[in-house]
Design goal:
The protein is of the alpha+beta class and about 325 residues long. The chain contains 9 helices and 9 strands. It folds into 2 domains: about 90 residues, 2-Layer Sandwich (Phosphorylase Kinase, domain 1), CATH 3.30.200; about 200 residues, Aminoglycoside phosphotransferase (APH), C-terminal lobe (Aminoglycoside 3'-phosphotransferase, Chain: A, domain 2, Alpha-Beta Complex).
């Protein structure tokens, strides 16, 4: 959620005339995140988040906007897109696709406690259960093919030991396709900065623009790697237990999922190590940008590899 596209007040006021939201009161750019341009927008009738999409096309976006509306209407705490006067979610602003969603109360947490981990585990399970009824489908654009392509880009920039680690993990993942684990709609990026809390109460999940159809267990692994990891990459047992024990009663695991857990934890760590390496070595230009440290996920990946056997059953 960086700012790559700068908008003027007059341009935003003209854009808001498509909605029944009253006059513009204020707006400001959001610096967190790295993919799209985002602004907080306040009008006479409420608070919203305006997203200008820098990479996704207008053809791709109905999946995400319809998904957010579907989940919000089926018990998942998330921001509902705002429809214009003609009932449309998807807009165009400064020759780019754009959308306005309702701003949720609360803030993200940097150091989640067990109650917050349990809340996110339960919400993720509800999303996985309800999302299997969502009629649209989208393949994961950052799956194994993307891993291989991105690795080819970043490998020449890496130290020898990092290059060896990356190549060995790619080889390992190629041996574990896991095609038979349950699949459905996944968030694919449910990090701490994509969930909002008021104290210990989860008020919403945000930023569904990596959402796709893939292994549900992979989505859980992405979430666990961020919410339950310590600074050295190890897993905090109390937070992990809280998250999984809240998830399991809502969506139970198959025997194959239980055995595949360490593989999925490694896959999730690999994906985000690669994306951060790419952002570091091939940054995009923007007015406000925020690049995240790849070494965080290098440490997580190394821990998951070293403790593979201990993590065998979820």
């Amino acid at each position: 959620m960086s700012v790559y596209t700068t908008i003027e007040r007059s341009t935003l006021e003209q854009f808001l005339r498509r909605y029944d939201l009253g006059a513009l009161v204020s707006f400001e750019g959001i610096s967190a995140g790295i993919e799209n341009t985002n602004y907080f927008v306040t009008t006479e009738r409420g608070e919203y988040v305006l997203t200008i999409f820098e990479e996704l096309s207008a053809e791709e976006l109905p999946y995400f906007l319809d998904l957010m509306a579907f989940l919000a209407e089926h018990g998942v705490p998330c921001a509902h897109p705002e429809a214009d006067r003609e009932g449309r979610y998807l807009q165009s602003l400064m020759d780019k696709p754009a959308a306005l969603v309702r701003r949720l109360a609360g803030a993200s947490v940097e150091h989640p406690n067990t109650v917050q981990c349990a809340a996110i585990g339960a919400a993720l399970a509800v999303m996985h259960r309800e999302g299997r009824r969502f009629p649209r489908r989208r393949d994961n654009p950052r799956g194994p093919r993307w891993w291989a392509e991105t690795a080819r880009q970043v490998l020449p920039r890496l130290a020898p030991e990092d290059a060896e680690l990356l190549q060995e993990e790619l080889r390992f993942q190629r041996l574990h396709k896991l095609a038979d684990v349950p699949r459905g709609v996944i968030h694919a990026d449910l990090f701490r900065d994509n969930a909002l809390f008021v104290k210990d109460a989860l008020t919403g999940i945000i930023d569904f623009y990596y959402a796709c159809n893939d292994a549900l267990l992979y989505d859980l692994a992405v979430t666990v790697n961020d919410w339950c990891s310590t600074a050295d990459g190890s897993l905090d047992a109390a937070r992990l237990t809280a998250l999984l024990e809240a998830y399991r009663p809502i969506r139970s695991f198959t025997p194959m999922e239980r055995g595949a857990w360490p593989v999925m934890l490694r896959a999730a760590a690999l994906r985000f190590w690669l994306s951060r390496l790419k952002d570091l070595h091939f940054p995009k230009e923007g007015e406000i940008t925020h690049t995240k440290d790849p070494d965080v996920f290098r440490r997580i990946l190394c821990h998951r590899i070293a403790h593979h056997e201990e993590l065998r059953h979820v």
